[in-house]
Specification:
- Two copies of one chain form a homodimer.
- Chain A has 174 residues and is α+β, with helices and mostly antiparallel strands.
- Helices cover 36% and strands 18% of the residues of chain A.
- The radius of gyration of chain A is 17 Å and the shape is globular.
- At the A-B interface, α1, α2, β2, α4 and β6 of A face α1, α2, β2, α4 and β6 of B.
Amino acid sequence: MEVIEAIQTRRSIRKYKKGMIPDEDLKKILTAAQLAPSAGNKQPWRFVVVREPEKINELAKIANNQMWIADASVVIAALAMDKGSPEIYPKWVERDVMIAVEHMVLAAWSLGYGSCWVGAFSEEKVKEFLGIPENMTVIVLLPIGIPDHKPEARPRKPLSEIFSSEKYGQTLKI
Amino acid sequence: MEVIEAIQTRRSIRKYKKGMIPDEDLKKILTAAQLAPSAGNKQPWRFVVVREPEKINELAKIANNQMWIADASVVIAALAMDKGSPEIYPKWVERDVMIAVEHMVLAAWSLGYGSCWVGAFSEEKVKEFLGIPENMTVIVLLPIGIPDHKPEARPRKPLSEIFSSEKYGQTLKI
């Protein structure tokens, strides 16, 4: 699927058909994160890939009982490395994780899978459950699965509201 | 261009041929940001699109004299809204801007344009120069232009280093 089409048609998917994502496809999705740009190429991201159904069910509970997550084929916990680490740029560590996750979202969508950024969860419980070091930050849980609904596009602010031309607040004519 | 191909072939482009980006293409790139997902669909991003060559030249100076920026066709300043605003989620405001910017990076690349995340600049000077309100954060300057070099891929950490399976630190076999 073309980039522009993927961006236009992508939806946050919160209902999945039961089924596996073949390793071949999953590897493409993970590689999309691996190839994301990052400040100074520090690649300050780590991920835990959860595929065992009982574990996914537990993550759904930890994510404020959003039980639709339990039907995902995979849940990926996206982590930012320790802000005190000399290997990273503190200002960019959380930001860069965002880029890598959206690469997975778009790659998954282009292969026919749906996903949804999940930010509501107990970070402490996710860390305990997945054995994540205390000094890392859990940025997001990303369930990925086979879409079982087709949500309408959510409303978007018009280009004229979010874009200015040459100076902030000056109308962009395009 | 396909999503996976765009992600695989994308490079940070720091050398541009002189030339304009037609409005039709620029609009597709801006729309890619508009359509990005955000926490609670708050769309906490704003952008200033700079196309006047003298202004772009000035931004290159403000960006620690990275004068290669001066050859870009467009520079987009990406802003996060006021963290104190009731319209946004403070935790997500900067993060969400990252998603929107990477949508532009990939959309531009798919249309044949190169770009580069630029994080090194005097935020104060960018704000003053573009008339950006004090309470917003300048996340990044994104020059976009016609590529005039083909950089090699930067090294990436192996999947086995960045991905764990089921528990943090447990080897992912894929």
